[in-house]
Amino acid sequence: MKILVCISHVPDTTAKINFTEGDSKFDNNGVQFVINPYDEFVLTRAMWFKEKQGATVTVINVGNPTTEPTLRKSLAIGADDAIRVNTDATDGLSVAKQIAEVVKNGSYDVILAGRESIDYNGGMVPGMLAAILDYTFINACIGLEIDGTNVTATREIDGGKEVLSTSLPIVIGGQKGVVEEKDLRIPNMRGIMMARKKPLTVVEPVAFEDVATSKSFEKPAPKGAIKLIDANNISELVDLLHNEAKVI
Amino acid sequence: MSILVFAESSEGKFKKSALEVVSYGKELAQQMQTNLVVITAFVEDTSELSKHGAEKILIGKSDNLKTADASVWADYVIAAANQESASVIIFDSSANGTYVAPMVAAKLQAGFASNVVAIPSSTAPFTVKRKAFSSRAFNFTEIKTSNKVIGLAKNSFGLKENPTESTVEEFSPELNAGKIKLESVEKSSGKVTIADADIVVSGGRGLKGPENWGMVEELADVLGAATACSKPVSDLGWRPHSEHVGQTGKPVASNLYIAIGISGAIQHLAGINSSKVKVVINTDPEAPFFKAADYGIVGDAFEVVPKLIEKLKEFKAQNA
Ligand SMILES: Cc1cc2nc3c(=O)[nH]c(=O)nc-3n(C[C@H](O)[C@H](O)[C@H](O)COP(=O)(O)OP(=O)(O)OC[C@H]3O[C@@H](n4cnc5c(N)ncnc54)[C@H](O)[C@@H]3O)c2cc1C
Ligand SMILES: Nc1ncnc2c1ncn2[C@@H]1O[C@H](COP(=O)(O)O)[C@@H](O)[C@H]1O
Q: How many CB atoms neighbour CB B102 within 10 A?
């Protein structure tokens, strides 16, 4: 089993969100970047397949050289090797095309990605990748077993879950549940040392055209001050929710 | 040319998010001076679609649509898009909408914008406003291709009635059988789910223990709301994991979010930024939630919540 884990390099959730260059770019200043949380779940699952089922695990990022520390962190967690496609990640479809090219050249049969990146909130790369490759796609995956070429996956649906069975090759859009939070791995010293020696290959992108481009950003209007209601005057809250907020 | 909306049905009925995308599609069709076509499956009664503006309704009945494989649904929508020369295809942000939309976009080589919150700010160039950074910012995206795919964020447009005479046609394109087999489904029965709820009542560690959730459930009952919780509450096993909201849990995009005994840590707020109106009930006036909420009560949940339930019952009785 050859697993490719797609790693998106994103600002930490607690990072300050600011924009520069006329609100056209995210302001990286002082921001710490991390492995996209959803990707951490699927990467951890990949480690299980590696240790228990002898899978090989490659991590990939489409991005410029600044994303390499995030790939090294994935190697420190236990991936065997890393690939960086050397181009700025712009729209989802071009990212999916770059990854698809690597999948074809490396004949990976399990592609694990996160349900969405927490920066751009696209939720599109895994589904697009599956469509381009004609691989089976399961999104919002909260449980994954692979036995030979048979796949059993649990998908979160509105108000519940469903269990699905299919076969390889597959693309997964995963989230918490694929592994539990307590099972996420923090790189240890040995992992970090080993990661330095693991291969990180830089490949040049195939030609592509942007089909959707981010033009600018805007911060939500500052929220009005909170209205405090006296604990002894609860009917005022009911009244405000009905007449002012119009939500009940 | 036309605008195509995918309206998902469940047990023969349309969810609110499906009617929301129809409402949105109608407004966009008017803006672009074209027709609104709605594609759906397995429904008899399409009056709700007509009420919200559908000019033409395509209904699939093929057995091949009884599949959990999104790629079959993607082919189904694409067949309709081709037949109707659709220039814009619109999905909601339900579990199925977000499953199918990216596949449709890739198969059509169309630009895709998800989490869209408004009618395009311009149609030439085609620019939409969407949520990014877990609703901590908005992003304007230009879709450059002639075919465009949009995913509308839940509760961002609302329902708009636009009574229209619709033509209804059965639609049966050829479809493959799909590669995924559905083994079992588990639905939390009878309860309002977080994904569908207009109102969510959520409890944190301030509630001290699972035995105190009776009043949270009663409050939810009175409001027709779903119940939710903070992460430590589900980690402690007081509530099921499916109720955990936040950065690592479920996102909530309800009209009203009531947080009881939740401090308002940034990771919690990351999941509820998209909720429209937020109410906090907390003993500690310094709790960060007071900076994020619209209405707040500084007070003990064990006194405030029962009173709130009582007042809401009175309100319901008067406004019934
Ligand atoms: C990587 C990471 C991811 C995380 N993801 C999430 C996430 O997805 N979701 C999430 O919720 N958290 C998440 N957390 C945890 C988060 O940082 C907070 O620890 C958590 O949200 C706190 O939960 P709480 O508000 O219920 O509990 P506390 O922080 O313990 O707050 C309890 C609150 O109740 C109030 N209170 C006490 N008694 C009463 C009373 N009688 N009446 C009214 N109020 C009372 C207190 O004043 C206090 O404000 C994450 C943390 C990390 C590090
Ligand atoms: N630039 C990228 N490089 C590698 N993987 C990515 C990249 N962008 C997105 N992904 C993967 O696709 C998932 C969904 O991302 P998105 O569609 O951008 O929300 C992420 O969780 C990653 O697994």
A: 32
Using alpha carbons only, how large is chain A's radius of gyration in Å?
21
Whole-angstrom distance, CA of residue A134 vs CA of residue B36: 30
Predicted model pTM: 0.91
pLDDT tens, residue by residue, B223-252: 999 999 999 999 999 999 889 999 888 889
Q: Is the ipTM of this complex over 0.90?
A: yes
Nearest to A211 among B111, B136, B198 (CB): B111
Please name the member of B139, B184, B267 whose beta carbon is closest to the beta carbon of A163.
B184
CB atoms within 10 A of CB B176: 11
Residue B186 lies in a domain: no
Strands (E), B178-255: 181-187, 199-203, 226-229
Number of domains present in the structure of chain B: 2
| B120-B122-B127 Cα angle (round to 5) | 65
Q: What share of chain A is helix, strand, coil (3-state, %, to 5)?
A: 30, 30, 35
Residue B304: give the domain boundaries: 199-318
Counting ligands in written order, which one lies closest to the CA of residue A214? Answer: 2
Q: Which CATH class is domain A2-219?
A: alpha beta
Which of ligand 2's atoms lies nearest the C-alpha of A122?
19
Per-residue burial over A94-128, b = 16 or more CB atoms within 10 Å of its CB, e = otherwise: bbbbbbbbbbeeeebbbbbbbbbbbbbbbbbbbbb
